[in-house]
Amino acid sequence: MEPVGRKKPNLRCLLLCVCLAALLSACGKPEPLPAGSVPVYYVNNAETRTEIHYQVLTAVGTEDQITQYLGFLGLLPEKLEYKAPLNMGFRVLGTRLKNGRLTIDFDSSYKDLSTLTEVLVRSAIVRTLVQAEGVREISFTVEGEELTDTTGKVVGWMNGDTFISNDGNEINTYEQARIKLYFATVEGTQLIGAYREKFYSTSMPIERFVVEELIAGPSGQIPGLYPTVNPQTKVISISTRDGVCYLNLDAAFLTVENNVPTEVAVYSIVNSLVSLDTVNKVQILVDGETPATLLSAAYEEDLRMVTTLEEAYPTTEEPAEGETGEPSGEGTQTENAGEEAPAEGQTGEGG
Protein backbone atom coordinates (compact mmCIF):
# COMPACT_ATOMS: atom_id res chain seq x y z
CA MET A 1 0.00 0.00 0.00
CA GLU A 2 1.32 3.46 -0.87
CA PRO A 3 1.55 6.15 1.79
CA VAL A 4 -1.43 8.48 1.87
CA GLY A 5 -0.86 11.88 0.19
CA ARG A 6 2.05 10.77 -2.00
CA LYS A 7 1.78 10.30 -5.74
CA LYS A 8 3.97 8.38 -8.10
CA PRO A 9 6.43 10.66 -9.90
CA ASN A 10 5.32 11.34 -13.46
CA LEU A 11 8.07 9.96 -15.73
CA ARG A 12 7.07 12.16 -18.64
CA CYS A 13 7.21 15.24 -16.47
CA LEU A 14 10.70 14.32 -15.21
CA LEU A 15 11.97 13.79 -18.76
CA LEU A 16 10.49 17.11 -19.85
CA CYS A 17 12.23 18.94 -16.98
CA VAL A 18 15.57 17.33 -17.78
CA CYS A 19 15.30 18.30 -21.46
CA LEU A 20 14.25 21.83 -20.60
CA ALA A 21 17.18 22.24 -18.20
CA ALA A 22 19.61 20.99 -20.85
CA LEU A 23 18.14 23.37 -23.42
CA LEU A 24 18.42 26.37 -21.11
CA SER A 25 22.00 25.43 -20.24
CA ALA A 26 22.91 25.23 -23.92
CA CYS A 27 21.32 28.63 -24.64
CA GLY A 28 23.62 30.32 -22.12
CA LYS A 29 26.79 29.14 -23.85
CA PRO A 30 28.14 30.86 -26.97
CA GLU A 31 28.89 28.67 -29.93
CA PRO A 32 32.58 27.74 -30.09
CA LEU A 33 34.57 29.50 -32.79
CA PRO A 34 35.82 27.40 -35.70
CA ALA A 35 39.42 26.22 -35.53
CA GLY A 36 41.83 28.86 -36.79
CA SER A 37 39.56 31.80 -35.97
CA VAL A 38 41.36 35.12 -35.56
CA PRO A 39 40.06 38.56 -34.53
CA VAL A 40 39.83 41.07 -37.37
CA TYR A 41 39.12 44.74 -36.67
CA TYR A 42 36.44 46.61 -38.60
CA VAL A 43 34.82 50.08 -38.33
CA ASN A 44 31.24 50.49 -37.19
CA ASN A 45 28.77 52.08 -39.60
CA ALA A 46 28.70 55.34 -37.63
CA GLU A 47 32.51 55.53 -37.94
CA THR A 48 32.94 56.20 -34.24
CA ARG A 49 34.70 53.03 -33.07
CA THR A 50 36.30 49.77 -34.13
CA GLU A 51 34.81 46.35 -33.48
CA ILE A 52 36.02 42.76 -33.75
CA HIS A 53 34.63 40.07 -36.03
CA TYR A 54 36.27 36.66 -36.37
CA GLN A 55 37.59 35.13 -39.57
CA VAL A 56 39.25 31.76 -40.18
CA LEU A 57 42.94 32.08 -41.02
CA THR A 58 44.18 29.23 -43.22
CA ALA A 59 47.41 30.76 -44.56
CA VAL A 60 50.80 29.55 -43.36
CA GLY A 61 53.88 31.75 -43.52
CA THR A 62 54.27 35.49 -43.20
CA GLU A 63 53.62 36.62 -46.77
CA ASP A 64 50.56 34.42 -47.22
CA GLN A 65 49.14 35.49 -43.86
CA ILE A 66 49.61 39.18 -44.73
CA THR A 67 47.74 38.60 -48.00
CA GLN A 68 44.88 36.80 -46.25
CA TYR A 69 44.60 39.42 -43.50
CA LEU A 70 44.46 42.17 -46.15
CA GLY A 71 41.65 40.22 -47.79
CA PHE A 72 39.76 40.04 -44.50
CA LEU A 73 40.13 43.80 -44.04
CA GLY A 74 38.53 44.44 -47.42
CA LEU A 75 35.71 41.93 -46.98
CA LEU A 76 32.26 43.52 -46.67
CA PRO A 77 29.66 41.66 -44.58
CA GLU A 78 26.53 40.40 -46.37
CA LYS A 79 24.19 42.57 -44.28
CA LEU A 80 26.54 45.59 -44.29
CA GLU A 81 26.32 45.82 -40.50
CA TYR A 82 29.87 47.25 -40.29
CA LYS A 83 32.53 48.68 -42.61
CA ALA A 84 35.65 47.00 -43.93
CA PRO A 85 38.62 49.36 -43.46
CA LEU A 86 40.15 48.41 -46.82
CA ASN A 87 36.88 49.02 -48.62
CA MET A 88 36.40 52.69 -47.84
CA GLY A 89 37.39 54.47 -51.03
CA PHE A 90 41.17 54.00 -51.23
CA ARG A 91 43.45 51.27 -52.57
CA VAL A 92 46.51 49.41 -51.32
CA LEU A 93 49.28 50.00 -53.86
CA GLY A 94 51.72 47.57 -52.33
CA THR A 95 53.42 46.17 -49.24
CA ARG A 96 57.03 45.68 -48.21
CA LEU A 97 58.30 43.58 -45.30
CA LYS A 98 61.80 43.91 -43.90
CA ASN A 99 63.09 42.65 -40.54
CA GLY A 100 59.60 42.35 -39.08
CA ARG A 101 58.57 45.82 -40.25
CA LEU A 102 55.69 45.97 -42.70
CA THR A 103 55.13 49.09 -44.82
CA ILE A 104 51.77 49.49 -46.56
CA ASP A 105 51.48 52.00 -49.37
CA PHE A 106 48.06 53.53 -50.20
CA ASP A 107 46.88 55.68 -53.07
CA SER A 108 46.18 59.38 -52.58
CA SER A 109 42.49 58.74 -51.80
CA TYR A 110 43.58 57.65 -48.32
CA LYS A 111 44.02 61.33 -47.48
CA ASP A 112 40.33 61.93 -48.22
CA LEU A 113 39.36 60.12 -45.01
CA SER A 114 38.11 62.36 -42.22
CA THR A 115 40.39 62.72 -39.21
CA LEU A 116 38.44 60.38 -36.95
CA THR A 117 37.79 57.80 -39.66
CA GLU A 118 41.48 57.74 -40.57
CA VAL A 119 42.46 57.01 -36.97
CA LEU A 120 39.91 54.19 -36.77
CA VAL A 121 40.99 52.73 -40.13
CA ARG A 122 44.64 52.92 -39.10
CA SER A 123 43.86 51.27 -35.77
CA ALA A 124 41.89 48.45 -37.41
CA ILE A 125 44.55 47.71 -40.03
CA VAL A 126 47.48 47.77 -37.62
CA ARG A 127 45.85 45.71 -34.87
CA THR A 128 44.79 43.11 -37.41
CA LEU A 129 48.05 42.80 -39.35
CA VAL A 130 50.41 42.66 -36.34
CA GLN A 131 48.91 39.22 -35.74
CA ALA A 132 50.60 37.93 -38.89
CA GLU A 133 53.56 35.70 -38.24
CA GLY A 134 56.80 37.70 -38.19
CA VAL A 135 55.18 41.17 -38.27
CA ARG A 136 56.26 43.39 -35.36
CA GLU A 137 55.57 46.92 -36.57
CA ILE A 138 53.65 48.60 -39.36
CA SER A 139 53.99 51.95 -41.11
CA PHE A 140 51.80 53.66 -43.71
CA THR A 141 52.85 55.58 -46.79
CA VAL A 142 50.69 57.44 -49.30
CA GLU A 143 51.97 57.33 -52.87
CA GLY A 144 55.38 56.53 -51.40
CA GLU A 145 55.42 59.42 -48.91
CA GLU A 146 55.36 58.76 -45.17
CA LEU A 147 51.94 59.28 -43.59
CA THR A 148 51.71 62.42 -41.46
CA ASP A 149 49.11 63.53 -38.93
CA THR A 150 47.24 66.82 -39.08
CA THR A 151 50.15 68.67 -37.50
CA GLY A 152 52.51 67.48 -40.25
CA LYS A 153 54.29 65.05 -37.91
CA VAL A 154 55.26 61.67 -39.39
CA VAL A 155 53.10 58.95 -37.84
CA GLY A 156 55.92 56.44 -38.02
CA TRP A 157 55.98 52.81 -36.89
CA MET A 158 52.96 51.39 -35.09
CA ASN A 159 52.03 48.19 -33.28
CA GLY A 160 49.15 46.97 -31.13
CA ASP A 161 50.32 49.06 -28.18
CA THR A 162 50.01 52.23 -30.25
CA PHE A 163 46.26 51.95 -29.79
CA ILE A 164 46.27 51.12 -26.08
CA SER A 165 45.43 53.94 -23.65
CA ASN A 166 47.34 54.61 -20.45
CA ASP A 167 44.90 52.59 -18.35
CA GLY A 168 45.64 49.50 -20.45
CA ASN A 169 42.33 49.48 -22.33
CA GLU A 170 42.09 49.21 -26.08
CA ILE A 171 41.19 52.44 -27.80
CA ASN A 172 38.01 51.66 -29.70
CA THR A 173 35.86 54.75 -29.26
CA TYR A 174 36.83 58.38 -29.83
CA GLU A 175 35.27 61.76 -29.16
CA GLN A 176 36.28 65.23 -30.24
CA ALA A 177 37.20 67.55 -27.40
CA ARG A 178 37.87 71.28 -27.36
CA ILE A 179 40.27 72.02 -24.53
CA LYS A 180 42.12 75.12 -23.39
CA LEU A 181 45.87 74.82 -22.80
CA TYR A 182 48.25 77.39 -21.37
CA PHE A 183 51.78 77.59 -22.79
CA ALA A 184 54.70 79.84 -21.89
CA THR A 185 56.07 82.96 -23.57
CA VAL A 186 59.68 82.91 -24.75
CA GLU A 187 60.86 84.38 -21.43
CA GLY A 188 58.94 81.71 -19.55
CA THR A 189 57.41 84.19 -17.10
CA GLN A 190 53.91 84.48 -18.60
CA LEU A 191 51.27 82.20 -20.05
CA ILE A 192 49.28 82.32 -23.29
CA GLY A 193 46.10 80.28 -23.50
CA ALA A 194 45.03 78.45 -26.62
CA TYR A 195 42.16 76.19 -27.59
CA ARG A 196 42.90 72.79 -29.08
CA GLU A 197 40.40 70.54 -30.83
CA LYS A 198 41.40 66.92 -31.02
CA PHE A 199 39.97 63.41 -30.99
CA TYR A 200 40.79 61.40 -27.91
CA SER A 201 40.01 57.95 -26.56
CA THR A 202 36.93 57.90 -24.34
CA SER A 203 38.65 55.27 -22.21
CA MET A 204 40.92 58.09 -20.99
CA PRO A 205 39.66 60.65 -18.44
CA ILE A 206 39.42 64.09 -20.05
CA GLU A 207 41.61 65.48 -17.24
CA ARG A 208 44.41 63.11 -18.19
CA PHE A 209 44.01 64.03 -21.83
CA VAL A 210 44.44 67.73 -20.96
CA VAL A 211 47.60 67.13 -18.91
CA GLU A 212 49.18 64.86 -21.52
CA GLU A 213 48.47 67.36 -24.30
CA LEU A 214 50.08 70.05 -22.14
CA ILE A 215 53.13 67.85 -21.56
CA ALA A 216 53.35 67.23 -25.32
CA GLY A 217 53.63 71.00 -25.76
CA PRO A 218 52.53 73.33 -28.58
CA SER A 219 52.58 71.93 -32.11
CA GLY A 220 55.15 74.50 -33.22
CA GLN A 221 52.99 76.07 -35.90
CA ILE A 222 52.25 79.16 -33.83
CA PRO A 223 55.33 81.26 -33.14
CA GLY A 224 55.51 82.43 -29.57
CA LEU A 225 54.12 79.43 -27.69
CA TYR A 226 56.61 77.39 -25.64
CA PRO A 227 56.41 74.27 -23.45
CA THR A 228 55.85 74.72 -19.74
CA VAL A 229 56.33 71.16 -18.53
CA ASN A 230 59.29 68.82 -18.97
CA PRO A 231 58.28 66.50 -21.86
CA GLN A 232 59.71 63.53 -19.92
CA THR A 233 57.05 64.00 -17.24
CA LYS A 234 54.73 61.02 -16.73
CA VAL A 235 51.24 61.07 -15.28
CA ILE A 236 51.18 58.48 -12.50
CA SER A 237 47.51 58.98 -11.69
CA ILE A 238 44.75 61.53 -11.99
CA SER A 239 41.20 61.66 -10.62
CA THR A 240 38.57 64.28 -9.84
CA ARG A 241 36.30 64.24 -6.80
CA ASP A 242 33.94 66.99 -5.67
CA GLY A 243 35.49 69.45 -8.10
CA VAL A 244 39.07 68.81 -6.95
CA CYS A 245 41.46 67.23 -9.47
CA TYR A 246 44.17 65.13 -7.80
CA LEU A 247 47.17 64.92 -10.12
CA ASN A 248 50.18 62.74 -9.33
CA LEU A 249 53.24 63.26 -11.56
CA ASP A 250 56.65 61.64 -11.50
CA ALA A 251 59.84 63.42 -10.45
CA ALA A 252 60.62 64.61 -14.00
CA PHE A 253 58.08 67.40 -13.42
CA LEU A 254 60.52 69.07 -11.01
CA THR A 255 63.13 69.44 -13.75
CA VAL A 256 62.70 72.93 -15.23
CA GLU A 257 61.85 73.20 -18.94
CA ASN A 258 62.97 76.25 -20.96
CA ASN A 259 63.78 78.17 -17.76
CA VAL A 260 60.07 78.20 -16.89
CA PRO A 261 59.69 78.84 -13.14
CA THR A 262 57.88 76.17 -11.16
CA GLU A 263 55.03 78.57 -10.40
CA VAL A 264 54.41 79.19 -14.10
CA ALA A 265 54.52 75.44 -14.85
CA VAL A 266 52.08 74.81 -12.01
CA TYR A 267 49.59 77.40 -13.21
CA SER A 268 49.83 76.21 -16.79
CA ILE A 269 48.49 72.90 -15.48
CA VAL A 270 46.02 74.40 -13.02
CA ASN A 271 44.52 76.94 -15.43
CA SER A 272 44.25 74.29 -18.16
CA LEU A 273 42.45 71.82 -15.88
CA VAL A 274 40.18 74.39 -14.25
CA SER A 275 38.95 75.37 -17.71
CA LEU A 276 37.10 72.01 -17.65
CA ASP A 277 33.56 72.10 -16.27
CA THR A 278 34.38 69.30 -13.82
CA VAL A 279 37.36 70.95 -12.08
CA ASN A 280 37.47 73.87 -9.61
CA LYS A 281 40.77 73.18 -7.86
CA VAL A 282 43.89 71.14 -8.53
CA GLN A 283 46.16 69.34 -6.08
CA ILE A 284 49.54 68.39 -7.55
CA LEU A 285 51.65 65.60 -6.07
CA VAL A 286 55.06 64.35 -7.17
CA ASP A 287 55.57 60.63 -6.61
CA GLY A 288 52.67 60.72 -4.19
CA GLU A 289 53.92 63.60 -2.05
CA THR A 290 53.65 67.39 -2.04
CA PRO A 291 57.17 68.73 -2.79
CA ALA A 292 58.52 71.74 -0.89
CA THR A 293 58.58 73.75 -4.13
CA LEU A 294 54.78 73.72 -4.32
CA LEU A 295 53.28 76.40 -2.12
CA SER A 296 49.69 75.22 -1.92
CA ALA A 297 47.89 71.97 -1.23
CA ALA A 298 45.16 72.81 -3.73
CA TYR A 299 45.49 75.48 -6.42
CA GLU A 300 42.71 77.57 -7.91
CA GLU A 301 42.69 79.31 -11.29
CA ASP A 302 44.96 82.37 -11.44
CA LEU A 303 44.99 84.42 -14.67
CA ARG A 304 47.29 87.20 -13.45
CA MET A 305 50.26 85.82 -15.38
CA VAL A 306 48.18 85.23 -18.54
CA THR A 307 48.84 87.47 -21.54
CA THR A 308 48.17 87.48 -25.29
CA LEU A 309 50.46 87.01 -28.28
CA GLU A 310 50.01 90.67 -29.19
CA GLU A 311 51.01 91.86 -25.73
CA ALA A 312 53.87 89.39 -25.39
CA TYR A 313 55.27 90.07 -28.87
CA PRO A 314 54.20 93.59 -29.96
CA THR A 315 56.36 93.44 -33.10
CA THR A 316 55.05 90.04 -34.25
CA GLU A 317 53.93 89.95 -37.88
CA GLU A 318 50.31 89.46 -38.81
CA PRO A 319 49.03 85.87 -38.76
CA ALA A 320 49.77 83.88 -41.88
CA GLU A 321 47.01 83.05 -44.34
CA GLY A 322 44.72 80.44 -42.83
CA GLU A 323 45.53 81.51 -39.27
CA THR A 324 43.02 83.38 -37.20
CA GLY A 325 42.89 84.98 -33.82
CA GLU A 326 40.37 86.24 -31.38
CA PRO A 327 40.63 89.12 -28.94
CA SER A 328 40.89 87.86 -25.41
CA GLY A 329 43.55 86.94 -22.92
CA GLU A 330 43.72 83.51 -24.46
CA GLY A 331 44.64 82.07 -27.81
CA THR A 332 42.12 80.07 -29.70
CA GLN A 333 43.47 76.89 -31.13
CA THR A 334 41.26 74.83 -33.33
CA GLU A 335 43.14 71.61 -33.70
CA ASN A 336 41.06 69.11 -35.56
CA ALA A 337 43.37 66.36 -34.54
CA GLY A 338 46.14 67.92 -32.65
CA GLU A 339 46.57 71.48 -33.75
CA GLU A 340 45.82 74.96 -32.61
CA ALA A 341 44.43 78.22 -33.99
CA PRO A 342 44.97 81.65 -32.43
CA ALA A 343 42.93 84.39 -30.89
CA GLU A 344 42.69 87.81 -32.46
CA GLY A 345 46.11 89.21 -32.32
CA GLN A 346 47.37 85.67 -31.74
CA THR A 347 48.32 83.04 -34.19
CA GLY A 348 46.92 79.56 -34.08
CA GLU A 349 48.49 76.25 -34.72
CA GLY A 350 46.78 74.31 -37.41
CA GLY A 351 46.54 70.71 -38.23
Summarize the structure.
The chain is an alpha+beta fold.
Properties at a glance:
351 residues; alpha+beta; 2 domains; 4-stranded mixed β-sheet; 21% helix; elongated
| Total domain count | 2
Q: For the largest beta sheet, what order do the strands appear in spatially?
A: 4-5-6-7
CA gyration radius, whole angstroms: 27 Å
Largest sheet: 4 strands, mixed
The N- to C-terminal Cα distance equals 93 Å
Strand coverage percent: 15-25%
Q: Mean pLDDT, nearest integer?
A: 81
| SS field, number of helical segments | 6
Shape: elongated
Q: What class do helices, strands and sheet pairing give?
A: alpha+beta
Order of helices and strands: HEEHEEEHEEEEHEEHEEEHE
- How much helix is in the residues? 10-25%
Describe the protein's architecture and organization.
With 351 residues, the chain is of the alpha+beta class. The protein has two domains: 37-163, no CATH class; 174-340, no CATH class. Helix content is 21%, strand content 24%. The protein has helices at residues 11-27, 62-73, 115-129, 206-216, 262-274, 309-312, and strands at 37-44, 50-56, 82-83, 92-98, 101-106, 137-142, 145-146, 174-184, 191-201, 235-241, 244-249, 281-286, 299-300, 306-307, 339-340. The chain has a four-stranded mixed β-sheet, with no helix packed on it. Strands 8, 9, 14 and 15 form a four-stranded mixed β-sheet that branches. Strand 5, helix 3 and strand 6 (137-142) form a beta-alpha-beta unit. The longest helix has 17 residues, at 11-27. 32% of the residues are buried. The model is unreliable at 1-6, 317-339 and 342-351 (pLDDT under 50).
